[in-house]
Amino acid sequence: MLPQLHRHPWMDDDIETFRSSVRRYVEHELAPHLDAWRRQGFIPRDVWRPFGELGALLPELDVEYGGSGASLAYQLVVQDELARAEVPATTAVHSIASHYIADCGTPEQKRRWLPRLVSGEMLVGIALTEPGCGSDLKAIRTRARRDGDEYVIDGSKMFITNGYTGNLLVVAARTGDSGSRGVSLLVLETENLPGFTVGRRLEKLGQHASDTVELFFDSVRVPVGNLLGGQEGLGFVQAMSQLPYERMLLCMPAVAVVERAVELTVEYTKSRKAFGQSLADFQNTRFKLAECATIAHVMRTFVNDCIQRLIDGKLDAEAAYMAKWWCTEHQCRITDECLQLFGGYGYMTEYPIARMYADSRVQKIYGGANEIMKDLIARKLFE
Ligand SMILES: Cc1cc2nc3c(=O)[nH]c(=O)nc-3n(C[C@H](O)[C@H](O)[C@H](O)COP(=O)(O)OP(=O)(O)OC[C@H]3O[C@@H](n4cnc5c(N)ncnc54)[C@H](O)[C@@H]3O)c2cc1C
After folding, report:
1. Which residues are catalytic?
2. What is the pLDDT of residue 178?
3. CA of 368 to the centre of ligand 1 (A)
4. Does the structure show a pLDDT above 70 at 4?
5. β-strand 150-161 against 212-223: which pairing, if any?
């Protein structure tokens, strides 16, 4: 049993009730299908319709777009529950991309897409990374050229989550000169869009139920009304504006996975026998799990504090960078330590700990690689 934390101020009775209903839904309606989804390499889009009806896809969006007008904590609680059950980051990406539209879109863009994103009729992805650049977003080469009332998009994108199952895409493209001021975001409805091709689903180390693809744009035409915010050159600033929230969407699953890994390992080591005693009787096991539980506790406390600051609009970028690298680093370390205590069974993917270990690895890479987080923290230190 992990030590209980004091209930954080952002966590009230309403959120607890919401959490319980999400947990029930995830346990009964999503978790039983995960093995099949992992085997096929994606979660079908229509799975998210009832999740939307439950109010769990985008509870934080305004009531006028179908949301509940709830605080960001509601979405973070959803991600906590999904990660605990090993459901991949599909809806986290959906939330980030939807926030781009909610926070940076024109009134017409919000009316057009947000209600369909809240209901789950649409699933959205974000296409920033390209085969030639990831960390250095300024270097993107996908181009959107203005032609009358349309933009013509040419280029390709790499590693795009929801790129196969999604039907809406926020795409970063170059509308101007080199550098960050030449980048814009365009929103594309991708079904039957001429010139748009989805590459094969990429085979990954983990996160097997999440679809990750390369995307190709060959003279794809979209109306100028699809330029996010209606003004060219804002893409970099728009993407940056969402980063503190985006990073919390990575930290929350890190905490959930670490806590679950410790729980599972305590259970397992109590029942597994070696040398006439249970693994839990070895001092090494007890010390290792004591360390892991301590880190889980510190992590939850740190993330709770960041969430409070996020809700208050006071989460500074550096705190978000710190939380991202530190939580994901420890997520990988602790799933590794726990896996070790399962012995050979820990290496078998039928055991959740093996999947958690493999699924965790990407957390240090995406959402801003951890080296980039440290570089940004250091820049502030040496300012
Ligand atoms: C499963 C998965 C899902 C993804 N989903 C999406 C998605 O939905 N949308 C999207 O746009 N992208 C997505 N990505 C891409 C992801 O964001 C990038 O992989 C990430 O930003 C790193 O970029 P890169 O792979 O090009 O690595 P690179 O930028 O080439 O970096 C390689 C290594 O060099 C290091 N490095 C780079 N620059 C520096 C520096 N200045 N100082 C020190 N070290 C440096 C990096 O930290 C890293 O360790 C996904 C990736 C994966 C694996």
Report:
1. 246
2. 85
3. 7
4. no
5. antiparallel
Domain 242-381 listed as CATH 1.20.140.10: yes
Give the pLDDT confidence of 368-382 residue by residue, as tens digits: 999 999 999 999 999
Q: Which residue owns the Cα nearest ligand 1 atom 27?
A: 134
Pocket of ligand 1 (CB under 6 A): 93, 125-129, 133-135, 159-161, 204, 207, 212, 362, 365-366, 369, 371-372, 375
Ligand 1, atom 32: nearest CA belongs to which residue?
A: 135
Test site for ligand 1: of 136, 157, 365, most ligand atoms within 8 A of the Cβ:
365
| pLDDT mean over 177-197 | 95
Per cent of the chain over pLDDT 70 is 98
Give the domain ranges of the chain: 13-123, 125-231, 242-381
Distance 202 CA to ligand 1 centre (A): 15
Whole-number Å distance, alpha carbon 142 to ligand 1 midpoint, is 17
Centre of ligand 1 to C-alpha 133, Å, is 8
Check: CB of residue 272 under 8 Å from CB of residue 278: yes
185-213 core/surface letters (b: 16 or more CB in 10 A; e: else)? bbbbbbeebeebebeebeebebbbbbbbb
Tens of pLDDT, residues 70-109: 999 999 999 999 999 999 999 999 999 999 999 999 999 9
Residue range 221-239: average pLDDT?
A: 97
Spatial CB neighbours of 105, under 8 Å, sequence gap ≥ 6: 113, 114, 187, 228, 229
- Class for the domain spanning 13-123: mainly alpha
**CATH second-level architecture of 125-231?**
Beta Barrel (2.40)
Residue bearing the CA closest to ligand 1, atom 7: 160
